[in-house]
C-alpha cells in the first residue's frame, strides 16, 4: 500500500447508511477517531501484500477495484471498501492480483479497527449493517463453488459407479443355459466366449427376441447368436464418455476393462445413479428389510450416497433433507422390527438434536427417546430399548455421551413423566436442564403415535413465561465457544496449522442463538432455516441478518461436509472414536482459496450474530 499524505479532517458524512444509525455520542466518538489521507492518481491504496487496520470511505475522487488488468468496480464519494481485508486479513481478501487504486487524486476517511469494533459492539444495528453486502458476496462465492463442482462432475470416473460382475458362458451353451445362468445370478446379460477367441454378449432382450419373436429353439447354441465387437471402456475412463458411447450406439451397457481384462459391465441405470443419486435404491432396501442386518447394509450405503451427491455438486440442504428421510426410515423400520404391535400403538419414537432438526449430514451421536401413553405398560421394554440402541451402534450411529438414548429409562417414559421433566427444566433450570430442554425442543416424531410428542410440545410451549432471566440463561450457551475469524481473523495467521472446530465456532452459535429466539416467540418449528425465516417474518430478526444467517449456515455446513467426505478412506476405518474426533475439525490452511474466504466471512457474521444475541438477551449485563 502506498503511503498517503495526511490532511486536515473534513467533516464526515453521517447521513449515509449505515452511519446514520449511530447516535449523536457515537458520531462524536467516530469523528474523533477518524484519519484522513490523500492518495495521488494511480496510487495503490490496498493490495494483497499488506494487511490493513482501517476501513476506507471515499470522501473525494474515485477508487478503482482492479482484478488483474481489468477494472471490476469503481468506488466514488461515500463508498467504502477494505472491510473484508480489515476483518479477514489481506490474504483472505484480495484474490489473485486484486488491488484498489486511486483513479484520480482522491481523499479517503480511514476508520480505525478499534473504533469500528467499539461501535459495532455498542450499536448492534450498526454492527450488522456495516457488514455490507455479505449475503451477496456469499451467493457469488457459492455460485463459483457450484460451477467448479459441476465441472468436477464431468471428471467423474467409471470406477465410481457400480459394475455388474461379468457372467461368462461358452459358445456351445444353449439359449436355455444362458437364461438359467441369468436367472441364478440375477443378471440381465451374459458374456460369450466365442470359438474364435472373441468375446460377445447376449442380453435378456436378445433372448426374448430370439425365442419369443423369432421362434428359435431354446436348445440352439448361443455362440452364433451373440453380438461381437463389444463397446469397451477402461475403468479409469470418464463416466461422461460412457454416457456418450451409450447414447451414440443406443445401448444400455458397456463392458469395462482393467489392465486389459474384463472387470464388469456398466449399466445405464448405474451410470445415472452416480450422476444423480441412488437414494431410491436405499429406500427400497429399507422397506424390504426383514431383519436388522438388512437395515445395517442399507444404512452403510448412506455414506457413499453422501459422497456421490456431494461430488456431483448437489446442494447441502438437499443432501440433509434426503439423509434425514433415509435415517428416519431406518429408525422407524428398526423399531417396527423390534417392537410388538401394542407398543407401536401406545408410544412415539422421537429423534432430537440435529436429527430432529433435519440437519444431520453425518452419523453423529444418537439422540433419541420414547414417549409412552400414560397407563400403558410393556414388561419387555428394557430389552427392546437396549436392542434398539445396540443395533444403531452397529449401523454406525455412536452412543450419545450424554446417554440420551432409548436404553436410558430417563428418555423412555410416559407422557406424564416427560411433562414433569419439562416443568423441572423450565422452573428449576441448571446447565443439564437447559441442555435437555434445548434437545427436546428440537424433537421430531419417527414412529408410533405422533400425537404423544405433539401433546408434550404443546405443554412445553404453554409453560413458558415472559421471564427474562429464564431466556437469558437459555441463550447463554450461544457464547460458550470462541469464534475466530471476523474481527479476530488474525487467529488464522497466528495459528495457521491449528484446526478450528467448525461446529463450536460457527454452526452451534447459529443453531442455538436462533433456537433461543424461536423459543422466546413460542414457535413450534424445529429446522434452523425455517426458524430463521419465521423470525424474519415476525420482525424478531432483521431480514438482512436472516438472509445472511441462512447463507452462512449453508456454507459452514457445506465446508464441514466437504472436510469430512474428503478424508482418505483409511481414516474412516480408524474406528468410531477417531471418526468422531475429526468430525468437526477444519484446517483453515488446508482449505482452497474459495473455501478459505467463505469460512472467514461466515465466522465474521457469526461473531456479529453472537453480539446481537448478547445484546438481545442481555448476556453481558
Automatic annotation (TrEMBL):
Which Gene Ontology molecular-function terms are recorded? [protein-PII] uridylyltransferase activity
Matches recorded under SUPFAM superfamilies: cAMP-binding domain-like (SSF51206), CBS-domain pair (SSF54631)
Ranges where the Cyclic nucleotide-binding domain occurs: 18-137
This protein's source sits in the domain of life called Bacteria
Start and end of every CBS domain?
A: 162-218, 225-281
| Membrane spanning stretches | none
Tell me yes or no: is Zinc among this UniProt entry's keywords.
no
Record's keyword annotation contains Transferase: no
- Known InterPro entries for this protein? CBS_dom (IPR000644), CBS_dom_sf (IPR046342), cNMP-bd_dom (IPR000595), cNMP-bd_dom_sf (IPR018490), Diverse_CBS-Domain (IPR051257), DUF294_put_nucleoTrafse_sb-bd (IPR018821), GlnD_Uridyltrans_N (IPR005105), RmlC-like_jellyroll (IPR014710)
Keywords of this protein's UniProt record, alphabetized?
A: CBS domain
Q: Which PANTHER family match?
A: CBS DOMAIN-CONTAINING PROTEIN (PTHR43080:SF2), CBS DOMAIN-CONTAINING PROTEIN CBSX3, MITOCHONDRIAL (PTHR43080)
Its protein name is CBS domain-containing protein
